[in-house]
Amino acid sequence: MAMPKTGSSNIVIRLEMDKEAATFGLIATAIGKAGGDIVAIDVSGNGRTSTVRDLTINIVDAASKDVIVRMLDHLPGVTVLQVSDQTFLMHLGGKIEVTPKMTIKTRDDLSRVYTPGVANICMAIHDNPNSAHKLTIKRNTVAVVSDGSAVLGLGNIGPLAAMPVMEGKAMLFKQLAGVDAFPICLDTQDTEEIIATIKRIAPAFGGINLEDISSPRCFEIEQRLIEELDIPVFHDDQHGTAVVLLAGLYNAVKLVGKQLSDCKIVLCGIGAAGIACTKILQAAGVTRIVGVDREGALVRGNSYAHEAWRWYAEHTNPEMESGALSDVIEGADIFIGVSGPGVLKRTDIERMAADPIVFAMANPTPEILPEEAEGLVRVMATGRSDYPNQINNVLCFPGLFRGVLDCRASHVTEAMKLAAAQAIADVVSEDELGEHYIIPGVFNPHVAERVKEAVIQAAYASGVARRRVRSTTS
To answer: What is the pLDDT of residues 208-224, one digit of tens each?
Structure first.
């Protein structure tokens, strides 16, 4: 079995070398044997008997760093002075800050931005609450809210440990779509407390992005907030994944000459993302979807402990196929994985229909690695950045929130999600479309703008846009 790739990172090791006892060749050999790759060398000090060098080293995981340091410590004439992790350095003091739009230089400036002049603004909002969208940060600000219960692949690590992820998301909002986002990590995992807290802070925000909240609580939290707030609420782990998945499938089926609505799809992993993916596929016209989880295929009429599974069984699998994944994958055109590593085998792919499409999106290790599926799949996608066709929520949420803020949408409709998916798919031109390029990269400069425009258009068509003039300055 091929070994899974892991995300690499850089460390910087400052070491002192005795000019007589140490040779750089031995140092480089030791680093290579420990799994490191020297990418840069800087001389930071040079004396008569010794020299100090900063080595930038690419490593595959944290364990490699410890091995490298131990090996260097045992070399004659080599002293390790300092080890710096570039990722940790980027996080020192956090990754975001609040920056004022103007400087306060005079008493007159102070009197306008604060007391007494600000009182006029307060009363204007009091008399017309809708003017808060023009006169405060509400018009361009999103709360990124998590309870830390389902963070990446790390699980329930709590609100403090979730902060770096939410800060990173806030950075992406700003860089890719100009949206001011702020991380709100709640020290509770009680459903009612989360709902009540978000409702109380909502006046300061134009939208709520729910993030990394475990299933099944996330369903009720999102639904209740959608019903009880007048601003968009969007659980990105569900719907962002679904939108980008659908975008990739639009292009994948085009490439293999099939109609999405005619395809049989087997989806493995009936959690938050899996259910959202199923719902958007149904909205796109797909009817033959078979969901598989730990108990095998979900079948109408069977008894399930989870309410979400009961819903799923009632609304999918029209032919009532039963059995394990290896049973129901017979004749499937598409496999979608939002489950765990190693779930899909080569023998399973061999039983699929011609030109099989596999979206193995479990992170960090997919349901089957691309190198394991090579020669069997026609189109392969994962959730990882080190393989082609990454299904990444970053393609969705910046542009989507830019759109809903600009048109002041009251909520996000299914039509708006479908429009976002089509907009992402359309960024890939006919000339560019290929087996290794069915979805644009996360830094494609056209994605956020295209998604924004599509979402705004769909919001007006759906009747949920409340801004009369589609101008970001009004």
So the answer is: 999 999 988 999 999 99
